[in-house]
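Help wanted!
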Amino acid sequence: AQSVTQLDSQVPVFEEAPVELRCNYSSSVSVYLFWYVQYPNQGLQLLLKYLSGSTLVKGINGFEAEFNKSQTSFHLRKPSVHISDTAEYFCAVILMDSSYKLIFGSGTRLLVRP
Amino acid sequence: NAGVTQTPKFQVLKTGQSMTLQCAQDMNHEYMSWYRQDPGMGLRLIHYSVGAGITDQGEVPNGYNVSRSTTEDFPLRLLSAAPSQTSVYFCASRGQGALAGELFFGEGSRLTVL
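Answered by r_m:
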């Protein structure tokens, strides 16, 4: 069965420190991969996406992610976080079969402390 | 740009009451969907539609009805609310096909069922 796993439910980090949010997926078909961010009391917005090409993709607000097909991972990274990065981050995949089903992970709450 | 608009933002219901959550988008998107968000469970798909007149069930459809009479609107109906339906509901839309995979979300509707 297809699934998306975000192992860390919460990641606390100090301001200006680097951070990595982990995402692994399981699928029998090819996928497109996404990271969404949800700020408090708001809807989700797209952070970045991988469709094809270079496995390192850059998104908004200084975030980047690397697609690793052999490890079926799509980890999100930022070299130096700000207080304003405090939010919930969701990894998601679209199945590249006739369903184009979108599957979300359970989310990781990034808590940036001063 | 209005994007995806949801109303109401907040609602309190008593068990057994009915209500409709409204969703409208102005991007001419064919695909529209409803998710519910619960702590630790990420987003779960309730119902979706790939175009006017076409709807289908998602992961957690029980207790909810939808219809799609126009491209713009996709209301979600709770016919007899239950406390288990206390949640935050998000409407989202996207262009047709996986290459237009970015979902655009509304700001959410927080529903409490007493």
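OP: Thanks! One thing I noticed: The mean pLDDT of chain B is 92.
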